[in-house]
Each structure stands twice: as structure tokens, then as C-alpha cells.
Amino acid sequence: MLGFRIAFRHVIGALFWSLRPKQWPKNLLVFAGLVFSLNLFNLTDLLRSLGGFVAFCLLSGSVYIVNDLADVEKDRLHPLKRLRPIASGRLQPGAARVAAVVAAIVALAGGFALDGAAQRLDEQRAAFEDAAHQDHIEGFGLERQLADDADGG
Q1: Residue 152 belongs to what H/E stretch?
Q2: 57 vs 30, 94, 95, 112, 127, CA distance in Å?
Q3: 17-51: per-residue pLDDT in tens?
Q4: Per residue in 88-122, pLDDT tens?
Q5: Are 34 and 40 contacting, i.e. CB atoms less than 8 angstroms apart?
Q6: What is the dihedral of CA 14, 18, 19, 25, to 10 degrees?
């Protein structure tokens, strides 16, 4: 059992590095709209952007894996690229193919789910704001009526 855990960790580690996390800072651009619209502290928009960031990382990672699969023979001859998980043999091409497809599906499905969830949150927030506004209006009317009654009119 211990051998399986060690092998599993190595495969997971190789998969992770195949997604090229060093490239992920580029995906931070999804937060630019949030920052420039001054909505950085809007929880709904922040969660939407965070989900978009994760989806972009997974989707771009799947493209990097496909690229590494296509260029594996050339990468084995390159002094630095030969150290990548697929070119070095730490990650089997079959596992890499499965990981690329799964990452792409999760990213795309997550993007669609994120859009639907964000729309529901926006609808709930709007309903809450309407209810709060209606309570404020009704409260103002009651205060006004009490004030008129107190003035004798």
C-alpha cells in the first residue's frame, strides 16, 4: 500500500507540474476588471473572478499538456524541456491525455456553472435589496404618519 501512495504522489506531482503553474500569474488578468470597476470587495464578483482564474488555469494547463504530448520527441532533445514530466518519462502519455481532457472538461463545466451561480447570486442580491428598499419605504411611511398624527394633522 505504501508503494501505491508514493507512486500516486509522484503521478499527481507530475500532473501538477505539467499544468505549468509558473504560467498561472498571467491568468491574474481576470481580476483586472474587478479592480478597475472598484468591485474588489464585492463578494459575488470576487468569487466569480476567482472561479474564472481557476478555470483559466485548468484550461491553459490542459493546452500545455497537449502541447507537451505533441512535442515530446523534440522536448527530449532540449536541455531544459527534457526535464518536463512527459518528456522525462515521469508522466506517462496516457495519463497525460486523460488529465488534459479532464482538466478541460472541468474548466469548461466550471465556467458554465460559475456563470449560472453568479446569475442566481445576482438575482438573490437584487431581491434582497428590493425587500430592504420596500421595508425602508414602508418604514418611512409609518414614521411620516406618526409624525402627522403627533402634529394633529
Answers
A1: none
A2: 11, 21, 19, 15, 33
A3: 999 999 999 999 999 998 999 988 888 888 888 99
A4: 999 999 999 999 999 999 999 988 888 776 677 66
A5: yes
A6: 100
The answer to whether the beta carbons of residues 28 and 40 sit under 8 Å apart is no
- The grid coordinates of residue 120 equal 442566481
Calpha distance 70→74 (Å, rounded):
9
Name the residue among 50, 71, 106, 51 with its Cα closest to residue 18: 71
* Burial state string for 21-58 with b = 16 or more CB within 10 A and e = fewer than 16: eeeeeebeebbeebeeeeeeeeeebeebbebbbbbbbb
- Taking the mean position of all CA atoms in its chain, how far away is CA 111? 8
Single-letter code of the amino acid located at 143: E
**Cα–chain center distance at 105:** 13
